[in-house]
Specification:
Elements: E1 4-16, E2 19-26, E3 42-48, H1 49-52, E4 60-64, H2 66-70, E5 78-83, E6 98-100, E7 108-110, H3 121-125, E8 134-137, H4 143-157, E9 165-170, H5 181-189, E10 194-197, E11 206-207, H6 211-220, E12 226-231, H7 248-258, E13 262-265, E14 269-270, E15 280-281, H8 283-292, E16 298-304, H9 306-309, H10 316-325, E17 335-341, H11 343-350, H12 367-382
Parallel strand pairs: 3-5, 8-12, 8-13, 9-10, 9-12, 10-11, 16-17
Antiparallel strand pairs: 1-2, 1-4, 2-3, 4-5, 6-7, 14-15
Helix pairs in contact: 4-11, 4-12, 7-8
């Protein structure tokens, strides 16, 4: 159920393509259990400009404050559902009948790269092969910049230009690509050449119906040399073996292999998570790759040098290798690949154009998490 509020826009804050932060003064009761450093009736709100326009200061908006009420981390905004005073102008007429966020009040029509009205329909109609394209699959959205940092670092060491990188965003987390400041920052920095939103996710440079057509579009339309597949921000987990949105990482491995790509399974790793099921290799990776993936993938395992290992908890490299080794004995029969991790890779991670953060921890707070993602990029850059 939705927790509703209305309010008046006080001011605009940061903006990036497709999204606008606002301060909104609520007309009703503050839904939060404990207010932040702003007056009790003021909340931070987010408007997706492609859906609700750009509400001007002084105008009234309707808000969904459910996530704000529950204090959810990724959903720490009130979300603008509609302007209350004047409706946005109709979008210009155009092609496209692919509906995303279907049958919700904010369903939106987009032009799918694979639909009949697309100029790329003929290219994709019979497309069936990724031609060995490396496809790095990750559980968490936070792995994306680390994977790209690793790939770019490896290319620089080899004296090559950085690979043309495309992000395929699945619909396990946020549906609007505009929610991700990471994607916006990577695009602005030139680290990411295109994004493809698949399933119910929307707002990428290209829209596709499935992970399969998203991968084919990345290869045959966006000319990708490296693809990263991961859900948007907002991983959902329930503390059960199967009840987490990252289970789709296993299906992405299957899709990449089915289409003739080289699947690279990036391990979700932590040396700082308080929950034992996520220490070392997370049970999310072990389930998604060990039980859901039915096709083999390369599994890069970080091998830290003494300087890097000194920043990790004692015994963590050995724990990661022992856990990862179980993936070689699963039905898919994945292949472990040892990838050295040295101070140069840490420096590359520290130089990313967007902030690194996973489960509230940055590079200093959980370096193993980002190194494990980065070595997947290092390996993929050499495939």
């Amino acid at each position: 159920m939705i927790t509703w509020r209305s309010g008046t826009v006080v001011s605009h804050g940061r903006s990036w393509p497709g999204a606008l932060e606002m301060t909104v003064r609520l007309a009703g009761e503050d839904p939060r259990e404990a207010a932040d450093d702003v007056p009790a009736a003021d909340v931070r709100a987010l408007a997706y400009t492609g859906l609700v326009g750009e509400p001007a200061p002084g105008s009234r908006v309707l808000l969904n404050v459910g996530a704000l009420r529950r204090g959810l981390g990724t959903g720490g905004y009130a979300l603008a559902v509609a302007p209350a005073d004047a409706l946005p102008a109709d979008p210009p007429p155009g092609p496209g009948h692919l509906v995303k966020a279907r049958y919700t009040p904010l369903q939106t029509l987009v032009l799918g790269v694979d639909e009949q009205e697309s100029p790329h329909h003929d290219t994709l109609r019979d497309a069936d092969d990724l031609d060995g394209l490396p496809v790095v699959v990750a559980d968490l959205h936070s792995a994306l910049p680390a994977i790209l940092a690793g790939a770019r670092h490896a290319a620089a060491l080899a004296g090559r230009r950085a690979p043309r990188a495309v992000y395929v965003m699945t619909d396990g987390g946020a549906l609007p690509a505009a929610f991700s400041r990471t994607v916006a920052g990577l695009r602005e920095a030139g680290w990411l050449d295109a994004s493809v939103t698949v399933g119910q996710a929307f707002g990428g440079d290209l829209e596709a119906v499935t992970v399969h057509t998203g991968l084919l579009a990345a290869r045959h339309v966006a000319d990708a040399e490296l693809v990263v597949v991961a859900q948007g921000p907002g991983n959902l987990g329930t503390g059960t073996r199967w009840g987490f949105s990252g289970v789709a990482a296993g299906e992405a491995v299957n899709a990449a292999a089915t289409l003739g790509g080289q699947a690279v399974a990036s391990l979700r790793v932590s040396g700082a998570d308080a929950r034992d099921r996520h220490r070392g290799v997370s049970h999310h990776s072990l389930t998604a790759y060990g039980r859901v993936a039915l096709a083999p993938a390369d599994v890069p395992v970080p091998v830290p040098d003494p300087e890097v290992a000194a920043t990790w908890p004692a015994g963590l490299p050995e724990r990661i290798r022992e856990q990862a080794a179980t993936l070689t004995r699963c039905p898919a029969g994945h292949r472990l690949v040892d990838v050295p991790a040295d101070a140069g890779l840490l420096a590359a991670l520290a130089a990313t154009p967007v902030g690194l953060s996973t489960m509230g921890r940055g590079l200093d707070g959980d370096p193993a998490s980002f190194v494990a993602a980065a070595v997947a990029g290092v390996h993929a850059a050499g495939v």
